[in-house]
Design brief:
- The protein is α+β, with helices and mostly antiparallel strands.
- The chain folds into four domains: 117 residues, ATPase, nucleotide binding domain (Nucleotidyltransferase, domain 5, 2-Layer Sandwich); 35 residues, no CATH class; 95 residues, Nucleotidyltransferase, domain 5; 71 residues, ATPase, substrate binding domain, subdomain 4 (Actin, Chain A, domain 4), CATH 3.90.640.
- The chain is built from 13 helices and 19 strands.
């Protein structure tokens, strides 16, 4: 134990929220040191080899704009690793960026994973981190990390409910005594919302828009419930009838209609979790309410819609985008808490 503490003095321990949309890194003693899109731009050679050209923000700029020989890849899909080799390259890049000074000791790394991932997927995450230079790897389930990051009293004998809406998955969890009493993970998140907008534009206007444009629409005028005033914005894309570039003006009511399906899937997951909650914990949730975290929590009026549908108080975490990485960072700082909440 003492030996471990001595190692800890020399290594830059990190907590990583390996998200479908963004990867955030927390360095012990420094806070959040990196927040970049989980995108890698790869050059393909004729022999099937891959050469990494750019990672993070630079690679995201290339999404949908690359020639045939270059592909912008998102190695994490629906919260799990889809491309092992590219994910390892991305992790290595982020870990190197987060550790500007070289140390002899490899870092201890905490990585967040979706609730209920398979043993094979856990092993893929562990091996990716070890190949990228980790000394020890701990895994924490995302809803647990989000609850710690949102400041919920997870070690107390009372129920806390967290809804973490990420890029690939939405995790709904009931937590008590540093354990997950019930959790439901649905593969609906920011990406599905973007796809819903793309399909809506195609169906209604015969306009093909890219992923980045759809995301911009969602962030600017996307709403889950009606707003007091109608918001509008211009969308550029390709007309599927003429094949020419075209600009359209759309409003927030149309986008609300487009987002109905993914938003309803999130509501259904919340309802399902509430139905399966033990009665004593239900009583705690009536008092404390539901806490929203993750990038999807920023969708306008989602908290209002959830409040109307469940009749419970709904709060948004102080920093929803960073809740998961802040929670895993807190666990990294407190070894006892980490041992309680880490998954084997």
């Amino acid at each position: 134990m003492l030996f471990d503490n001595v190692w800890g003095l020399f290594s830059n321990d990190l907590a990583i929220d390996l998200g479908t949309a963004n990867t955030l890194i927390y360095a012990r003693g420094h806070g959040i040191v990196s927040c970049e899109p989980s995108v890698v731009a790869v050059q393909m050679d004729g022999r099937g080899g891959k050469k990494v050209l750019a990672v993070g923000k630079d690679a995201k700029e290339m999404l949908g704009r690359t020639p045939a020989s270059i592909a912008a890849i998102r190695p994490v899909k629906d919260g799990v690793i889809a491309d092992f080799e590219i994910c390892e390259a991305m992790l290595r890049y982020f870990i190197t960026r987060a550790q500007p000074r070289r140390t002899l000791v490899k870092p201890r790394i905490v990585i967040c994973v979706p609730f209920g991932i398979t043993e094979v997927e856990k092993r893929a995450v562990r091996e990716s981190a070890e190949s990228a230079g980790a000394r020890e790897v701990y895994l924490i389930e995302e809803p647990m990390a989000a609850a710690i990051g949102a400041g919920l009293p997870i070690t107390e004998p009372s129920g806390n409910m967290i809804v973490d809406i990420g890029g690939g998955t939405t995790e709904v969890a009931i937590i008590s005594l540093a354990g997950i009493v019930y959790s439901k993970s649905v593969r609906v998140g920011g990406d599905k919302m973007d796809q819903a907008i793309i399909q809506f534009m195609k169906r209604k206007y015969n306009l093909l828009v890219g992923e980045r444009s759809a995301e911009m629409v969602k962030c600017t005028i996307g709403t889950a419930a009606p707003t007091e005033e109608l918001m509008t914005m211009e969308v550029k894309g390709r007309d599927l009838v003429t094949g020419l570039p075209k600009t359209l003006e759309i409003d927030s009511d149309e986008i609300r209609t487009a987002l109905q399906e993914p938003v309803n899937a999130i509501l259904e997951a919340v309802r399902s979790a509430l139905e399966k909650t033990p009665p004593e914990i239900s009583a705690d949730i009536v008092d404390k309410g539901i806490v929203l975290s993750g990038g999807g929590a920023l969708l306008k009026n989602l908290d209002i819609l959830l409040r109307e549908e469940t009749g419970l108080p709904v709060m948004i975490a102080d920093d929803p985008l960073s809740s998961v990485v802040l929670g895993s960072g807190k666990a990294l700082d407190e070894m006892n808490l980490l041992k309680q909440v880490a998954v084997s």
